[in-house]
């Protein structure tokens, strides 16, 4: 006999929503909620907590990031269970990775412990080491009990009201444990809480028999923590508050309303080099009408950055000085050796890794912008000088372009300096010519090949193997035009750059790619984007004969391929919500290319500010792999957000990348103020 339809429906509902007795597991659609406890030597008692385990946890073997969610004053660990449906939905729709959420109970100091170690000795509310218990004992227990990753990149702490203050405290005071914090309507007050604040009533900030100590409060509050933060352990902080928070009627305390205090917190935090902060003002007051949607927004921003894998760092050593240094190029030789170029202390420096170092220097400043290998083991280098680098430009005080050739032993064979008198001329790109000479590109404000068409004109120069300037071509329009990259094959010379107005053969501003014959006749030109901020930074010729250029268009990493006749074959765009750009392109076997650039978004595991981006594309522009690596600070870009990164293929099939970093390498130290890294990557490095 069939059961009535309504009984079948009830059976299904019961299987999805089992009512749980205390201490049992509560199963609902999606993840599960359970109660548990952790031993705490610091407290001398157990810490009770609820735990959310994502759907499929019991059947899986993988590790998960962990959220630690702190309740407000007077509340219990049950308060946070209401976000289960938010977590279920965000995990199901892949807006965040499958996470574990731990929701500890904090009953101490009559539920007003503020998540700090209290030194109040009064018998009414004896102080307890709550901060130590939760950050040491609870975290250790969770890592030993569940499939977590015991790294800071896999931990986020969140809280509302008193819990928001606790989350902020934990994230700033324990950077080694937490990489992110969701700080909702935080009960933080600066410099001291108002006279009617409950922070004064529970002994959390007490000392001895004194229930509230101004000295203790200042010591534990965020203004004292921010200056002490380690910028190599970046913390992401999401602050949210309602627009209908309690308005204190006392004008003297109006600045302590939590909407005021949240804005003050955000503006202080965002100025720390160790913190990236966001602020949201929500519609509502001091309750879950704000905290639940704010939690969802916080997780949407912070959750994707959680990772059970630590970021890929940059290797030691770094090259440079205690002053400002810049990357200037990398060349790979047939014997496997690498030569890198950089600017250090205002001089151009070339180093054969593991061998010689040579400075190209005058009392004025020099910069390198390209290094190319030669068949005899020597190198070409290009850049600009404000002095007399070749001994034939006495009295020069403006930027002059130069190209130099060094032998395999580092001996300078020749230096050629050229430019218009009294104006700026710079080289930004270099390629070896088949005969041992060079193609160099940059810009001039003068007239090196007829009249200047505008503010700056792009230039392409051909030098002979002996260092003589064979010819120079200017390419410019009415605006500011610069060339950044150059590559050549037997019949074409390809040049990339950026223009603020239309160039001859194009219809508007943006990045551009132009093809010239080997005698300097322009054949065709194409543009990318349509803004003066768009630019193509580099170009290479693939084994299939395509000219592949890369750069930044519309804030995205843009790569495009053309035939020698100017027909576009394919384009590829890598876009994150943040800024991305290609800076170098390396031809590989089978027509593939490796693009190196930078991203401020998340392609793989974020390391810090701007990370180095690597992107492998096949011969038809299809993405094969992408990865990012770097330090906690900016890598691959300079202080003006312009790329400072170069790459080349090695005989071993790897890609050598050099660039600017403001961080510290793994297992090493940084001279400071911007240094130069060198790293080799292979297809297996891309996750």
Automatic annotation (TrEMBL):
Signal peptide (residue range): 1-20
Pfam families: Esterase
Record InterPro entries: AB_hydrolase_fold, Esterase-like, Mycobacterial_A85_antigen
Gene3D superfamilies documented for this protein: 2.80.10.50, alpha/beta hydrolase
Swiss-Prot/TrEMBL keywords: Signal
Record-linked SUPFAM superfamilies: alpha/beta-Hydrolases, Calcium-dependent phosphotriesterase
PANTHER family in UniProt: DIACYLGLYCEROL ACYLTRANSFERASE_MYCOLYLTRANSFERASE AG85A, ENTEROCHELIN ESTERASE-RELATED
Protein name in UniProt: Enterochelin esterase
Lineage: Bacteria, Bacillati, Actinomycetota, Actinomycetes, Streptosporangiales
